[in-house]
Design brief:
423 residues, Rossmann fold, Nucleotidyltransferase, domain 5, 2 domains, 8-stranded mixed sheet, 13 helices, elongated, disordered C terminus
Length: 423
């Protein structure tokens, strides 16, 4: 095994994920782990899943047969039932099933389960089959007197190439729970590939696909990322709000979905240190900012959506901007919002400029929704930021401050004067 394959083989997690690039050995790892599990007991039922029957017939079944032959284990493959029966007092049997229809994952209990290429499914379907599989994974292994075998426990393992921010990302990264662990393997980690394999992929794929299909990284594979240079490691900062900090707050108005991103300025560069999303309306947001910051000695300056001058969160006579000002918050806003692409360009230039400098930093721990939105938001078919995924609210909030304080045009002519900072 490669180092990564061996690491995964030895994991004790109840729900494990092997995520890797092309040729990183996902199917080989699945076969090794499935055989290991089958050798726990002749009672063991090992369920192995592929997205389609063709993949069972062409890839999974031949690989399992090869492993059994290598170990000298006699077997019979019933192609009608898609079950491999073994004739060994120390080895269980293998049930081979597809992921095409979750309602057909019934009628058996498995001791261990192995799921191949789960991220090729739509997110809802992947979630449905995962729930079915873990529900079926409940077989107990017992000795001759009915006592559960020592060290035996049920486990489900998945193996996939990352296909964007889909089921695997949601389950093992974004919403990771106790018992869920992953091992990532790059294509280059497999020394048994042809010498020109990696180079041929490098020559054929754009950078985003290289990160996914060679490095095993979760990246946006949709029609172009709006913020392609953002990196949660390279743009990360551990900065937090400290006593006496002036706080610069970008704000977007949306009833029940109001968003605000709180920045501090260090060495003249902005750092997003806190986010507030899903707030009901402007009065609630104003109260929140006062309770958390203004009433605790911070000067709070709001950089809102300019449309707030004409809208109302509570009644037609009271604008959003008036509500903020009446709460004692300073508001800085132009008469109109900048053009969307100007705001995006300003944001991208702060994320990574032409000289390779990353001026914008984000405390990714305190701003998880902003971080994910910067990683994931694609363009729609009209070349504008896609709003269908709900990622735009927190990004709009963050962008209003950046576009006001660090506009592209301003930075082209001066490196000293930052409007609004008293220089």
């Amino acid at each position: 095994m490669t180092k990564e394959q061996a690491e995964f083989f030895q994991l004790q997690a109840k729900y494990s994920l092997f995520v890797g690039g092309y040729g990183s050995g996902k199917t080989e790892t699945l076969a090794n782990c499935a055989l290991r599990d089958a050798l726990s007991s002749s009672q063991a039922i090992i369920a192995c899943y592929e997205p389609t029957y063709d993949l069972i017939r062409l890839i999974l079944a031949p690989r399992m047969e090869e492993k059994l032959l290598d170990f000298g284990i006699r077997y019979k493959y019933n192609k009608t039932e898609n079950i491999i029966y073994t004739s060994n007092p120390q080895c269980g049997d293998f049930i081979l099933r597809t992921l095409e229809n979750p309602v057909r994952i019934v009628g058996y209990e498995s001791y261990r389960a192995h799921v191949d290429e789960i991220d090729t499914l739509k997110k809802d379907q992947a979630n449905a089959v995962w729930q079915k599989i873990i529900a079926r994974n409940r077989q107990s292994l017992v000795d001759d007197i009915g006592t559960r075998l020592e060290g035996s426990f049920n486990r489900v393992s998945a193996y996939t190439t990352p296909e964007g921010f889909k089921f695997a990302y949601d389950t093992w990264v974004k919403n990771k729970k106790a018992g869920y662990e992953l091992v990532r393997a790059k294509t280059a980690s497999n020394p048994f590939l042809p010498e020109d394999y990696v180079q041929s992929l490098l020559d054929s794929y754009p950078s985003q696909l290289i990160k996914a299909y060679l490095d095993g990284e979760f990246v946006n594979l949709n029609s172009g990322n709006v913020y392609p240079s953002f990196d949660r490691k390279l743009n990360h900062s551990n900065a937090i709000i400290t006593k006496g900090d002036t706080l610069y707050v970008g704000m977007d108005f949306n009833r029940l979905k109001m968003s605000a991103v709180v920045y501090v300025i260090k060495d003249n560069d902005p750092i997003a240190v806190k986010e507030h999303t899903g707030v009901r309306d402007t009065p609630d947001m104003a109260k929140l900012l006062c309770d958390l910051y203004k009433n605790n000695g911070h000067s709070v300056i709001i950089y809102p959506d300019a449309s707030g001058a004409n809208s109302s969160s509570k009644n037609a006579s009271e604008s959003d901007l008036s509500i903020l000002r009446q709460a004692g918050l300073t508001v800085r806003v132009n008469s109109t919002n900048p053009a969307i692409m100007n705001r995006i360009n300003a944001f991208n230039a702060m994320i990574l400029n032409g000289e390779g400098v990353r001026n914008l930093k984000v405390n990714t721990n305190n701003c998880p929704e902003l971080t994910e939105a910067l990683e994931q938001q694609p363009y729609d078919k009209n070349g504008m930021p896609d709003k269908s995924g709900g990622l735009d609210h927190v990004l709009d909030a963050a962008g209003y401050f950046i576009a006001y304080q660090y506009p592209i045009v301003k930075r082209q002519f001066t490196t000293q004067t930052i409007p609004g900072f008293g220089y």
